[in-house]
Design brief:
The complex is a heterodimer. By secondary structure, chain A is of the alpha/beta class. Chain A has 14 helices and 17 strands. Classes of the chains: A alpha/beta, B alpha+beta.
């Protein structure tokens, strides 16, 4: 069954909660059947009066699932994708006042110097796409991706900008894209959460768990963070000494008592609780199974550069593929550490950025290739990017020369790439000016990107709303246009 | 508005047959007056308002304000001509034959009945009526019911509706269920077995009422209800955003607990939190109350604009105030007039003006802070207070205490009229600044009346030495004070004695360095009032004490609200399209006209707070009563507890809501305990949860309350209860938040050294409301059970039912420990499996299990026992004990604490 029909069918089945519960009522065995759709659909849907999901999807979707690779800290487009020879000529010259007037920067003060690209570029693929020397693996797949080079945002501090990108608002409290999408489309696998989050790079993104929060949507739609050590999902393992056999026996007792309770009081929520406990039991098997990358053949591990047992972006890319393969709707990766201000070697464009690129180049390339080999790329949308860009000027925090080369936060221009999921490939969209300061052609705002992601999943960002505190909220607030030009 | 022929229903009891006929004839000839709120508004809201509202007025036609609806529209026609439906374009369009012209567009046409109502209404003059919630509650008549079921007035209202809907009320819940329910509802905790026995065995008439009184008097009561208020107050132990560093504000939490336990009247509760600092001679506790609005987020990220985030906080304070007290959604009015409710955009900024004048400014230090000093310094402070009181008044000594604990009012860089040769530390002109040899600062219009000394708040390293000269009128004007600026350890307040005191003057602060490379940091100036008792020999010594205490390190602190002095208050402007960088007209404090009715003068937050709890306010009583009702019944009389506006739900029992609201703000004198007692004493509250087939069919959502709702316990309650029944729960109240065990790696932080330091001893077993809340990484099991993230005001937690919740209560070590602890107690029970199963169930649920449940538990014990006999090593791993029986009982205890009936109120 294709996604559209699947969703329609699901909608019909779950238009009302009562319908579901009636089915449960016919016998508890029926619950397993009724829960084909995964936890998201068995729950609160239909309890509220939010009409949104009843009419979803709005049209035929191109993508079934999303993998979002968020580079927390904002990578420099000028050292990776947006090649500006002119900037090289201007290197070390004072920035003209005209570029500074009325501008707000996070750290630049007074008159900074212009800073030429710190790494060399070459053209690759049939598309002749410029890629820097920092991404040798990625240069092999440029014909599989679309580069959006004139992205822009409203926020120039990390936490607000990450929230803006992930939730459509710079302030906390709104649902993240992943929460919206699982709220709208549910999960394809009852034994796994529909929205999973993997974090690498040593630290969480600045916006913290709000970046994958459910905001005002019910808490079941928040991203479930997979952990790098201990339980892959909190509390998924039984305590030591409690075998699966014993857990089964105790669940049987719990369910039997709950059935007695149902007989006495007739509250259908009790049946729902029984179903949730059964799902928890299944998740106890399926989660550790899917999270175990040692199950992958060594050549696949090698393709990604994965090292089982370590916390790395490479492992997370491989996990992302395993998760979408198992029907997880939205997989969100965060890789921390891209904030190259130049105040230390680790945050310099020459050293720090090189290290970061080394960490992601092979795995992200492998992810696209692997998805393609498995026929998953067609309906999986992969997105890579940071929360904003970097200035063509060299950072001069406090008006002083910094010890290393670095760039300040910049809202007006940055590059992201997308692959699969009905997006054109071997294609660059948008242009910045000669120094990469402003987008001059085909600019794409963060809200446009969000509208486009939803569109690929069959969701109309203007109609996909949730009523809260007296108004209908959207991921894109009152903005955003689908970027039709990049659709295949 | 009453219908014209109401008297046919409530009028003279004996109407003769003929008179009756006559009336019927009359009422059908003479048209009945259309009730706008009851008949017209629902049609407009459902069909028209999304396109013809307050913001979107398609075709130039909007239905929020009458004047908009009566105006000429874009095509030259008039939508509504009062008295003339035939001339009204609206009527023509809803009746149009052409589907492309007919309204509502692309939707089902209105029914004939709806068209008739609208036609009739226009014919009668198209009068608007304020939304029901904005009208003063009329004193409702209590319906008369005679079944004997009713126990108090609430029940008459409820029973009336139950009957209208062909339902019947339920019997009272069993005594075991009732006692557990009322304990959980009033104190948040389950009763102990002794407490249950005491109630169940008390057969007196007064037994239930006595229990209710006892629970309302329990200190646990305040802890439970504080949780609800802390969701609204968005209370947390961290500041939010990137680094999400710790914020010390737990004294506010304790203040809320005490206020509930003391049954502080809700009007006072309101005023102290919103404007305690503006009360005459506020107490220290009244200042702590104002921390309510210091729970806003603070952005410590480097490079952020303090003004931007200060404004974000002010906006949050506006939105939160309107949501908490008025259930009105103001956030949309930031950028444009309200789309559905009659509130104009400029009125948003009138609300903003109330909150725009406090001296906090999004700095990492979170000043102004109310400090609690180290013990020795607290003693010195007490002595200073006594000394002053003896030479002046207690009021005067209270003022000095506040000056010493808070260090306000302070004139800060944003108040500086003019500066020369200085560098602001950050982009913003709000941060402290660097001064050099020859730097100066001008502050305009300073009142020096009663001022004896000016404290400079500065910081300087040893290397540089400089002096400060304070001049009046100009940079060359007379010097009225001077001081050297020696090395400091961090920012300190250094006193400068003032020699002459002109009433209002411009002050110039001039910095002279001893060497050319002099540099220091300045954060502002404090105006120190004259100390009374200047004839006293100890005068200078006390001044010295004062200066030392003012700079003393502190043990605890609480961020509070402090109003900026009138001479340096901020101006408020409308933000054009909600953008704070684009300022429009100036705005002055006030509330939207739809609420205030007749023009009323507002000056500051105190006026706002007093108005909220005044007789003129139609909403506060209803909104607050509804919040408490919703906590007890899982659902409000108005379901949308957060929205009483046009788009909110209409009350299920409007008269009951008004009756409760009028009692609450009237004869009950805003006492929450009276309100709660009246509700829990009602027969409505005491009903059984059992659902009959008929009730399920006719009222599946239990709107008419013909049974008690089964509500899942809150996140905090679920954990507290497990600790309580297993005997682990600590009774300790108040103090800094605690860190009970949580899995490693939950806190991964950027730019912060924050660590989860697991609490020792009883602190690991405190009630949930004392658990440390870090906004970016809340306590995992709480958030899984739908607790608030505490970033913004939350009126209503949405209860979900998920597999992740099952994993928490099955496997979270906290729950496992409670199971183990319970099992240890069951081990001591004499008897076989049956007895043990029964005692265990009784400990958890407070009653004996029926035979079916006992059998299920015995079967579990038998199977588990057999398993662990075979697998002794596993039994040991589970309990670290060689006795496999403990493992068996632990498995059962864990199962009991996962029963649906355990995490739900019956």
């Amino acid at each position: 069954m294709d996604l559209y029909n699947e969703a329609r069918k699901r909608k019909l089945e779950f238009t009302t909660r009562r319908h579901f519960l009636k089915r449960c009522g016919t016998g508890l065995g029926g619950i397993a059947l009724a829960s084909l759709l995964g936890p998201q659909h068995l729950l609160g849907r239909g309890m509220g009066d939010n009409a949104g999901p009843d009419t979803l999807p709005h049209f035929y979707p191109k993508a079934k699932r999303v993998i979002y690779l968020h580079m927390a800290g904002a990578p420099s487009q000028l050292e990776m994708f947006d090649y500006k020879p002119k900037l090289e000529e201007l290197h070390d010259l004072d920035c003209p006042e005209s570029l500074l007037e009325g501008k707000r920067f996070a750290f630049i003060q007074g008159i900074p110097k212009m800073l030429g690209p710190q790494h060399s570029f070459e053209r690759y693929g049939e598309s002749g796409t410029y890629v820097s020397e920092l991404l040798p693996h990625f240069s092999n797949i440029v014909d599989e991706v679309a580069l959006l080079k004139a992205m822009h945002t409203d926020e120039f501090n990390h936490a607000p900008a990450q929230l803006f990108l992930q939730t459509g608002s710079p302030r906390v409290g709104r649902p993240s894209i992943g929460a919206w999408v699982t709220y709208g489309l549910g999960s394809e696998n009852e034994n796994l959460p529909g929205y999973m989050v993997l974090v690498s790079g040593g630290k969480s993104p600045s916006a913290g768990k709000n970046a994958w929060g459910s905001g005002f949507l019910p808490s079941e739609y928040q991203g479930v963070q997979c952990r790098n050590s201990g339980d892959p999902i909190l509390y998924v393992s039984n305590p030591d000494g409690m075998s699966r056999d014993i857990r089964r026996k105790s669940l049987d007792a719990i369910n039997a008592i709950n059935k007695e309770q149902y007989k006495e009081f007739g509250d259908q929520e009790i049946l729902s609780r029984i179903a949730q406990y059964e799902m928890a039991f299944k998740m106890q098997l399926s989660v550790p199974e899917v999270m175990d990358i040692t199950k992958e053949p060594t050549y696949i591990q090698a393709l990604y550069g994965a090292n089982p047992g370590q916390a790395s972006f490479a492992n997370n890319c491989l996990l992302a593929r395993r998760l979408v393969e198992q029907g997880v709707r939205f997989v969100q990766l965060y890789h921390w550490g891209w904030d190259m201000h130049g105040d230390s070697k680790a945050t310099s464009l020459n050293e720090g950025l090189k290290t970061k690129c080394l960490e992601i180049d092979k795995p992200m390339t492998a992810l696209v290739q692997d998805l393609k080999l498995r026929g998953l790329l067609d309906d999986t949308l992969v997105i890579w990017g940071g929360e904003f860009g970097r200035t063509p000027m060299r950072e001069n925090r406090g008006g002083r020369i910094m010890p290393f080369y670095g760039r300040d936060h910049h809202t007006e221009a940055f590059t992201i790439w997308m692959a699969g999921g009905g997006i054109k490939s071997g294609f660059s969209y948008g242009e910045t000016d000669d120094i990469g300061y402003y987008g001059i052609k085909d600019r794409v705002h963060v809200h446009d990107l969000q509208a486009t992601i939803l569109h690929q999943l069959g969701l109309d960002h203007e109609k996909f709303t949730y009523h809260f505190q007296g108004r209908d909220f959207r991921l894109t607030d009152v903005h955003g246009h689908v970027v039709k030009d990049i659709l295949a | 508005m009453a219908r014209q022929f109401d008297f046919t229903i409530t009028g003279p009891k004996k109407i003769s047959f003929f008179a009756g006929i006559l009336l019927i004839l009359l009422s059908s000839c003479q048209e009945e007056k259309i009730d706008f709120n009851a008949q017209v508004r629902p049609i407009l809201n459902k069909n028209c308002i999304s396109c013809h509202g307050g913001v979107k007025q398609s075709g130039g036609f909007g239905l929020i304000f009458r004047e908009n609806a009566l105006r000429e529209t874009k095509n030259g026609k008039i939508g509504i001509v009062p008295g003339h439906p035939e001339k009204s374009e609206m009527i023509a369009r809803i009746k149009h034959d052409d589907p492309e012209m007919r309204m509502p567009l692309e939707k089902e046409p209105l029914s004939q009945e709806e068209i008739d109502v609208l036609t009739q209404w226009i014919k009668q003059g198209a009068e608007w009526q304020d939304h029901w919630a904005y009208l003063k509650p009329p004193e409702p008549q209590i319906p008369h019911t005679t079944s004997g079921w009713a126990k108090n007035e609430i029940d008459h209202f409820i029973l009336n509706k139950i009957k209208e809907n062909n339902l019947s009320p339920s019997e009272e819940a069993g005594r075991y269920d009732l006692v557990r329910r009322v304990y959980l509802d009033l104190t948040g905790l389950p009763p102990s077995q002794e407490q249950i026995a005491a109630f169940v065995n008390d057969h007196s008439e007064q037994a239930y009422e006595n229990l209710v009184d006892q629970l309302l008097a329990s200190p646990k009561y305040g802890e439970h209800w504080a949780s609800m208020w802390l969701d609204l107050a968005r209370f947390a132990d961290s500041k939010g955003y990137e680094a999400d560093r710790a914020r010390e504000i737990w004294k506010f939490r304790d203040w809320v607990i005490k206020a509930f336990n003391d049954d502080m009247p809700f009007d006072q509760f309101t005023i102290e939190q919103l404007a305690g600092d503006l009360l005459p001679d506020p107490s220290i506790n009244q200042l702590i109350a104002t921390a309510f609005h210091r729970n806003t987020l603070n952005n410590d990220e480097g490079g952020t604009d303090n003004e931007e985030y200060r404004i974000a906080s002010v906006i949050d304070r506006v939105n939160t105030t309107w949501e908490v007290w008025q259930s009105t959604t103001m956030s949309c009015v930031q950028c444009h007039s309200h789309p559905y409710d009659p509130i104009l955009m400029k009125e948003y900024y009138s609300s903003f003006a109330f909150f725009n004048n406090t001296s906090d400014w999004d700095v990492p230090g979170e000043q102004p802070l109310l400090k609690e000093l180290e013990e020795d310094d607290e003693t010195r402070l007490e002595e200073i207070k006594k000394w002053i009181a003896n030479r002046s008044t207690v009021t005067e000594s209270g003022k000095w205490e506040k000056f010493l604990r808070v260090g306000e009012p302070k004139l800060r860089p944003e108040d500086f009229e003019e500066v020369g040769n200085v560098v602001h530390y950050n982009r913003s002109n709000q941060d402290f600044m660097q001064v050099f040899n020859g730097s100066y600062i001008k502050i305009k219009g300073v009142s020096l009346q009663d001022v004896d000394r000016i404290y400079i708040n500065y910081r300087q390293s040893e290397k540089y030495k400089g002096s400060l000269y304070i001049r009046v009128d100009s940079l060359t004007g007379p010097v009225i004070g001077k001081t050297t600026l020696p090395k400091t350890n961090g920012f300190v307040n250094r006193p400068v004695k003032i020699t002459s005191k002109p009433a209002i003057t411009d002050l110039y602060f001039q910095f002279i360095g001893l060497s050319g490379d002099y540099a220091g940091l300045i954060d502002g100036f404090l105006l120190g009032k004259k100390l009374p008792g200047d004839n006293d020999t100890e005068y200078q010594r006390v001044y010295k004490e004062i200066d030392e205490v003012l700079n003393a390190p502190f043990r605890h602190s609480t961020p509070i609200m402090v109003e900026k002095p009138k001479t340096h208050s901020r101006k408020t402007h409308v933000f054009v399209r909600g953008n704070w960088l684009v300022k429009g007209d100036e705005a002055f404090p006030g509330v939207p006209e739809v609420f205030s009715g007749e023009k009323q003068a507002f000056d500051n937050r105190l006026d706002l707070a007093k108005w909220l709890v005044s007789e003129e306010n139609p909403l506060t009583g209803r909104v607050i009563v509804n919040r408490f009702w919703a906590k007890l019944f899982g659902k409000g009389l108005v379901t949308t507890v957060e929205d009483f506006g046009t788009l909110g739900d209409y009350p299920s029992h409007p008269e009951l809501l008004d009756w409760l609201a009028l009692r609450f703000s009237g004869e009950w004198d805003w006492q929450v305990k009276k309100l709660l007692k009246t509700i829990v004493m009602s027969a409505t509250y005491r009903q059984s949860v059992k659902v009959t087939a008929i009730a399920m069919e006719r009222d599946p959502d239990n709107k008419w309350l013909s049974r008690s709702p089964r509500v899942r316990l809150s996140a905090e309650q679920i954990r507290d209860q497990a600790l309580a029944v297993s005997g682990l729960l600590s009774d300790k109240m108040y103090g800094p938040s605690v860190m009970p065990p949580q899995p490693d790696g939950v806190w991964t932080v950027v730019y912060s050294n924050a660590r989860w330091n697991t609490s020792d001893g009883e602190d690991a077993y405190r009630r949930g409301l004392y658990t440390y809340t870090r906004r970016s990484s809340p306590y995992p099991s709480f958030i899984t059970f739908d607790a608030a993230g505490r970033e913004f005001c939350l009126s209503r937690r949405i209860n979900t039912n998920t597999p992740l919740q099952a994993l928490v209560t099955l496997n979270d070590p906290v729950y496992f420990e409670t199971a183990l602890n319970l099992a240890r107690q069951i081990m001591l029970v004499k008897g076989g499996k049956k007895e043990k199963a029964e005692v265990a169930y009784n400990k958890v649920m407070g009653k004996m299990p029926g035979p079916e449940k006992t059998n299920i538990l015995m079967k579990l014990l038998e199977e588990t026992e057999a398993y662990y006999r075979e697998n002794e090593q596993e039994a040991y791993e589970l309990t670290k004990s060689d006795n496999p029986e403990l493992a068996t009982l632990t498995v059962m205890a864990n199962a009991l604490m996962n029963m649906d009936e355990f995490i739900v109120k019956n």
